[in-house]
Amino acid sequence: MRARFLGPMMIAAAALLEAAPAPPQAPAQAPAYRAPRTKDGKPNLNGIWQAVNEANWDLEGHGAAPGPFWQLGAEFSVPPGMGIVEGGPIPYKPEALQKRKANFANRMNLDPEIKCYLPGVPRAMYMPYPFQIVQSTDPIMMVFEYAGAVRTVYMKKQPAPADSWMGWSNGRWEGETLVIDTTDFNDLSWFDRSGNFHSDALHVVERITALAPNHLNYEATIEDPKVFTRPWKISMPLYRRIEKNAQVLEFKCVEFAEDFIYGALRKVPLK
Amino acid sequence: MVTSLVTSGLLLAVTTVAGQAPAYRAPRTPDGKPNFNGIWQAMNTANWDVEPHAAGPSLVRELGAIAAVPGGLGIVEGGEIPYRPEALAKKKENQANRLKLDPEIKCYLPGVPRAMYMPSPFQIIQGQKHIMIVHEFAGAVRTIYMENHTEAPADSWMGWSNGHWEGESLVIDTKGFNDLSWFDRAGNFHSDELHVVERIRARSPETLSYEATIEDPKVFTRPWKISMPLYRRVEPNAQLMEFRCVEFVEDLIYGHLRKQPSK
Could you tell me which CATH number the domain at A36-265 has? Predict the structure, then answer.
């Protein structure tokens, strides 16, 4: 049904795209854009960036749907999205697909985002909040508004000391592209609000390339032999926040989740 | 402390956007006008509150951090909306009762300018006589009449829009609103005397600069202004999808009529 719905729309979209001035293309087709350089001669990715898509609701293509909480009506409905997974559905192993469905059914209790847990990778990159890339020769930092999450990308390879939410990231430059290899995740983060998940065997390789002064192309290959039958890939543009006063603000959400987590312990429990 | 920081940042931004915009010349349509065709979206937290605001918890505690209010620097020039005293009281009442009153929750039409900074894309389809703006949220549509300007035939959610070109800028004059839409989830509101003048110009191939002057003598002591960038959705497969939310709000609106009322 999804395919039937998208078919004619895609044709309409293609027609419209012809009329519009050409947007920046994915790197494959693109005339090679050369990013401005930092002092050490690397592509300069410094800035405040944000995804503009519905992947945090569901990585896969999905139609609009009522939210899991009817009291918020249309405000918390699921907005439709084309998805960012390349080449069709996520290749779950059969038992993992069962778990994904159970996650979805219980998402309002289980999604780590509700509890203000750390977003993990790649989810941090497409949460509906900005993040800042702060680039030195070594390391490169990413600072996320959501939950004050941070990633340190070591440009000289370092071994992971322990498993963690955001994993352990080693980076390198391949021409115009920052390649980040991240392992040593715990098994607690999700990919989205729909229950897409991974195990502690998750291995993410991200490729970040400037497409234009205000756009990055983001790709990630996701591998987890405990959960998926093969590696799979996501891709999306990232947009520079171009307001002159753009900044990453404070969004420390622990206190916002206290009632959700501990409300049952009140003398008069929340309903 | 936050306020002063935020206000100075805002003033800086507003002067920069309006004043010093480097002269970018947009590509042209066949009739020689700046070409704004495409799918656009705001990327800010104005739909939560057009004024500067800190992060805060959701009114629905069961939703934890997932529906919490993200902080934002606001899009109002000068930071604060110039309400008349009695109107400010109504705004506060709106905010306190927003779960019952916010038209967005009920999937009502977003009105103007709110439609422009809802967290959903919209498409500009540009003809010579009419320019259409089609919004994903609730399938809202605006027709901008570029010729034969007339008065609104009747009041409506999205108002009646007459447009003209001033060099690189599309100027849209909209009146004929009903008094039912809000500006955001924070209860900022207007009356049926609302008059919005929007100015849209391209600032680069992938960004528009959007400004609106908002006038409503029943509610505000003077006209005030908002400004923000709009971003072209640059995915190769970008398109508007269907987001008809009427059916999503049936329980909210009619649930109390069930034999076992929704709680």
Answer: 2.40.128.20
ipTM metric: 0.86
What is the pLDDT confidence band of residue A70, given thresholds at 50, 70 and 90? confident
B103-157 pLDDT, tens digit per residue, is: 999 999 999 999 999 999 999 999 999 999 999 999 999 999 999 999 999 999 9
- pTM for the model: 0.88
Distance from CA of B138 to the nearest CA of A (A): 9
Q: Does A245 reach chain B within 8 Å, measured CB to CB?
A: yes
Alpha helices in B161-260 (DSSP H): 250-254
Candidates A217, A195, A164; CA nearest to A90 is: A195
Residue B150 · residue B103 · CB < 8 Å: no
Higher pLDDT among residues B253 and A157, named by residue: A157
A50 at B interface, C-beta within 8 A: yes
Chain B residues within 8 A of A82 when measuring between CB atoms:
235, 237-239, 241
Burial (Cβ within 10 Å: 0-12, 13-18, ≥19) of residue A251: buried
Q: Is the pLDDT of residue B78 over 80?
A: yes
User: For A80, which of B61, B73, B241 is closest by C-beta distance?
Assistant: B241
Q: Does A76 touch chain B (CB under 8 A)?
A: yes
Residue of chain A whose Cα is closest to the Cα of B245: A74
The angle formed by the CA atoms of residues B202, B205 and B207, to the nearest 5 degrees, is: 55
Using CA atoms, how far apart are residues A51 and A193, in angstroms rounded to an integer? 16
Q: Contact B243/A77, CB-based, under 8 Å? A: yes
B259 vs chain A: nearest CA distance in angstroms? 17
CA distance A234 to A122: 9
Q: Do A244 and B71 touch (CB under 8 A)?
A: no
Condensed to tens digits (0 to 9), the pLDDT of residues B210-250 reads 999 999 999 999 999 999 999 999 999 999 999 999 988 88
